[in-house]
Fold this sequence. Notes:
By secondary structure, the chain is α/β, with parallel strands linked by helices. The protein is built from 17 helices and 24 strands. The strands form 7 sheets. It has a 7-stranded mixed sheet, sandwiched between helices. It has a 6-stranded mixed sheet with strand order 9-8-7-10-11-23, sandwiched between helices. A 3-stranded antiparallel sheet has the order 5-6-24, with no helix packed on it. Helix 1 crosses helix 5 and helix 4 (79-95) crosses helix 8. The relative contact order is 0.14. Bound molecules: 1,4-dihydronicotinamide adenine dinucleotide and magnesium ion. Magnesium ion binds next to loops.
Amino acid sequence: MAVTAEAESPAARFLEQPKRMLVDGDWVEARNGSTFEVFDPALGEVIAHVPGGDAEDVDLAVAAARRAFEDSEWSRMTASDRGRVIWRIGDVILEHADELAEIESIDNGKPVGIARVADVELAADMFHYMAGFATKIYGQTFPISVLYAPGAQFHAYTLKEPIGVVGQIIPWNFPLLMAAWKVCPALATGCTIVLKPAEQTPLSAIRLGELTQEAGLPDGVLNIVTGLGETAGAAVAAHPGVDKVAFTGSTEVGKLIVQAASNDLKRVTLELGGKSPNVVFADADLETAIPGAANAIFFNHGQCCCAGSRLYIEQKIYDEVLQGVSDHAGKIKLGRGLDPDTEMGPLVSAEQLDRVKGFLDSGEREGVRTVTGGKQVGDRGYFVAPTVLDGASPGNKVYDEEIFGPVVTTLPFKDVSEVGAAANETIYGLAAGIWTNDLTKAHRLIPQLRAGTVWVNTYNIFDAALPFGGYKQSGWGREMGEEAIHEYTETKSVCIGL
Ligand code: NAI
Ligand code: MG
């Protein structure tokens, strides 16, 4: 097997080992005995074979999670001890940060240095942040009046209880970080988990499973079923033993999750697609706005749900910003993620490459002007040149639909109200960016934007404390921050007659 990590590195040793999935603390093969191939997208070569779990494995994993939730060391653990275990997982991730970054870079394609800071360290921080919540989940007391029971007295309060067994289905763009966003609040509340990583990038989740064992997470609390979306993923979403499903991925599959969950009305949170507007006003500091607008779309090769993929530039600086962003795009160094000089890696898969090329072709057919990029690069791996498209507007596929690649469309605008309306011209509502030195202008535009996050004079800033999620068809609910804790608890009202 082609082992592509630095020879003898911990990541190389991990890649050499046979891959299993984690059910009830045991590393097992799929019951059906199948495996699927995992690729290094920079080389287009197979780097691992991973169990092709399906409904039968999901059944076993859900049963293990149920036992762990109802009657186990985990269910009897104090909140303080639970917090300590979660904190330790964060520590163990940091102890293995270089290894995890290398695994992520090889599996997903992203530059290893970026994987180190943007994926691994943020994932560890999520464990550390959510560890503190384990001891801070509590209800309230209420001075109730009960008008129809004059003279009676009551003691009324709420309990915040864990939802139970949660199914978590995650994508391939930030594999370890998305696992952390999902797993951490579930653990903090005392839930148990069946995690289904993306079939393109299951490796860091498998390593995370090993590290949670090293940190002392009891058996059955985190189960990891690797497999395809249509089989393993669909089984998680439909399973009657799953109390809640949390999903990140395409809006199309998000709707399938809702349908599957409607059978038993399980709780659902969704973090879906985006087509986020990024607005540059003429009074902005262009020395930061131009590279900022480029980073907004090209970070992670455009494979971000919140990518600033529709760039609106005030008319009088249109040519300057268009040129600046295009120049920036043209200088980005493409390469294999493990090469320290690489600034942008390949797309994650051959399928994603085809999808992005399909968008580029449709732009060309519809007469949208390519300022820079617009094509595949090299004949090995799945590389696409950072691309700037000028003048696409509603009705053009490249303007209307999420591309999920390094492709930005640009349009000029005249004033705040025009750009506010244009920015909302989408079924999505995940994020938006504003670049201006005029506070009034920014504050006029912020409430107009139907988006879950607005960045001003910055973009792609994430923190464990700051809720993230979408308006409209970008999703339901929020991840991170205290809001994520509420997504994993039920509220029980208790009323005692005195
Ligand atoms: P996808 O939505 O099919 O996959 C995401 C996850 O859902 C994976 O774990 C997959 O195995 C699982 N899945 C797929 N079909 C399922 C089903 N029927 N039931 C349950 N789980 C299922 O996304 P895909 O095909 O990888 O990418 C397609 C497009 O989706 C991208 O081009 C992009 O536009 C969007 N996307 C958005 C993401 C985000 O962060 N919001 C992440 C990944 C993709
Ligand atoms: Mg899909």
